[in-house]
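Session log. Operator J.P. requested a structure for one protein chain; no other inputs attached. Running the standard single-chain path with token output.
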Amino acid sequence: MFAPPAADGPSAPPASMFDSMPGYEGTVAGGGGTGCCIIPSITEDTAREALVLFASSKCCYSSAPAKDGVITNMEAFNTYRYRLETFTETRSTEWSHEPYNGQPVDAFSQPPPGPWDIPAKTPSFFLDSKQTIKVPYTSSMKSCHVCLGMGRKPCKDCAGAGNKVCWVCNGSGYRHGNDRCHHCNGRGRDNCSHCHGQGSRQCDTCRGKQQLLVYINLTVKWTNNSDSYVVEQLSGLQVDNLSKVSGKELFRDSQYMVYPVMGFPDPAVVSAAQRFVNEHQGKFSQTSRILQQRQIIELIPVTKVTYLWKNKSHIYFVYGNEFKVNADNYPATCCCCTVM
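Structure written below.
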């Protein structure tokens, strides 16, 4: 009963439907294509500024290599990232209770609606959210199971006695010789400060009301399930670094159920799209209701920069729209920084 209704049809036509046009080879249905995939290499000035900012952000890095190093080579290793998001709704129920304060009791007045028949306000797509709803016609009044309907429980600190041995005279009633203990007035016992001498405390579960309203809670969860694939770019930069940056968006498709990308110039992206779409639709349709899917292809700029500093060659990477830098072997570092 959780499976979504059958899709009306694929959200993208087959690649064979389109002719190959000079200068637009690899253009995919719905937008994108090689025509907008060509990102010019960054300039030397941009590469240098990125390294200067990187060095200045590190307390132990000298800026000299960044400012004075001689750039000898710049190679572009731009790569693709494919991301599939599946926005799902799941529903679960559990018994709950609260102190009874005269709330309406409606159990058995009519059959309660099923979990998926209860209306809930869907949030914006692709944003995680949660809503808790009291299921109609499930509320009843019961005696509190913790205090057995008494509204109070024996005090744990004094074991229900209402008082404890005086800590000043250890229960003797006297301090020195025949001097009466002024702390307990010679009684040898103190009133319990936790229950104020009553021997019992208000029940935390029913808050002294003796009765509970017992009902079923419905929890509705909206989850954005996301998977990404980055095409290996063979530059030497670890793929994990690219998860922290953005790229140029080439293609975006949002549908109830998306159709895997076809005809994209990089077959690795096509393969990843096919795998993710099959996995998501198979996995999430069994346990939840799929409300919307979205697939995005980005081109992430990656530039490998080689430079000379003190007659030695070094490399660093500039990547993402943010011009983030990875320079694991920066040549001028020190250990002058200490954590206070």
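Operator note: Residues 1-12, 17-28, 30-37 have pLDDT under 50 and may be disordered.
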